[in-house]
C-alpha cells in the first residue's frame, strides 16, 4: 500500500510526458502594421530613383491613402513541439544538438520513470540494487529536461529574431505541450522524492 503513491505519481508523470513532447511548446507570431509596411515599401522603392521619382511616389501614396491603412497582417508564424524541434534541428543538419535534445527530453526521462516503476514493483534482490544505483546516477541529470525546454524557447525566439526586422511585432505564446511538460517535471520530481533507494547492505 505504501508503494501506491509513488507508482501513481510515476504513471501520471509518464502520461504527461507524451503530450509534453508531442504537443506544441511555443508559438511565435509576427505581425506587421499595414501603414508602416506601405511607408517602408515606398521608401525602399524611392531610394532606387531620383528626387522626381520619390516625389511622385509620395504623392501617389498620399492620394491612395496608403499612409492611413489600418490593421495588421501576419508575416511570420511558427509552432513547435519538442519532437518537432528535434526534427527541425536534424533537417538543418544540427544532428548533435538534435540528438542531445531527444536524449535529455525524451529518452532519459522516459527511461528513468520506467526504471523507477520497475524498482517499485520488484522485490529486493541484486537487480533491484543495480536499478537503484542507476536511478541515483540519473538523478544527477534531473534538471536537464528543464534546460532543454529553455533551450527550445531560446532557439525558436532566436530563429524568429534572425528573420524579422524592426517592422515586425512579435508575440510569443506557450502551447499546451509546455504545460504538460511542466506537469511531467513536477510529478517526476515528486516521484523521485517518494522513492527511497535501499542500500545493498540494508
Can you walk through the features of this model?
It contains 8 helices and 3 strands, in the order αβααβααααβα. The mean pLDDT is 76. The longest helix has 27 residues, at 95-121. It is α+β, with helices and mostly antiparallel strands and 202 residues long. The protein has a 3-stranded antiparallel sheet.
Task: Characterize the overall form.
Answer: elongated
Total DSSP E strands = 3
Classify the beta-strand content into a percent band. 5-15%
Average pLDDT works out at: 76
Task: Write out key terms for the chains shown.
alpha+beta, elongated, three-stranded antiparallel β-sheet, 202 residues
Describe, in short, the structure shown.
The protein has helices at residues 4-22, 34-47, 51-64, 82-91, 95-121, 126-139, 144-163, 176-194, and strands spanning 24-33, 72-81, 168-174.
Question: How do the helices and strands line up, and which of them pair or pack?
Answer:
Elements: H1 4-22, E1 24-33, H2 34-47, H3 51-64, E2 72-81, H4 82-91, H5 95-121, H6 126-139, H7 144-163, E3 168-174, H8 176-194
Antiparallel strand pairs: 1-2, 1-3
Amino acid at each position: 500500500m505504501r508503494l501506491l503513491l509513488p507508482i501513481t505519481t510515476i504513471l501520471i508523470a509518464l502520461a504527461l510526458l507524451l503530450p509534453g513532447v508531442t504537443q506544441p511548446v511555443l508559438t511565435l507570431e509576427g505581425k506587421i502594421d499595414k501603414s508602416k509596411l506601405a511607408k517602408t515599401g515606398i521608401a525602399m522603392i524611392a531610394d532606387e530613383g531620383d528626387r522626381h521619382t520619390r516625389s511622385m511616389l509620395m504623392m501617389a501614396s498620399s492620394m491612395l491613402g496608403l499612409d492611413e491603412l489600418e490593421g495588421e497582417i501576419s508575416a511570420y508564424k511558427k509552432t513547435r513541439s519538442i519532437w518537432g524541434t528535434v526534427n527541425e534541428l536534424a533537417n538543418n543538419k544540427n544532428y548533435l544538438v538534435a540528438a542531445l535534445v531527444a536524449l535529455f527530453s525524451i529518452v532519459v526521462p522516459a527511461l528513468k520513470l520506467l526504471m523507477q516503476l520497475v524498482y517499485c514493483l520488484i522485490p529486493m534482490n541484486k537487480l533491484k540494487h543495480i536499478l537503484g544505483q542507476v536511478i541515483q546516477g540519473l538523478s544527477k541529470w534531473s534538471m536537464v529536461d528543464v534546460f532543454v525546454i529553455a533551450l527550445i524557447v531560446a532557439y525558436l525566439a532566436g530563429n524568429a529574431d534572425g528573420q524579422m526586422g524592426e517592422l515586425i511585432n512579435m508575440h510569443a505564446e506557450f502551447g499546451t505541450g509546455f504545460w504538460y511538460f511542466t506537469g511531467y517535471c513536477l510529478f517526476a520530481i515528486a516521484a523521485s522524492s517518494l522513492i527511497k533507494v535501499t542500500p545493498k547492505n540494508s
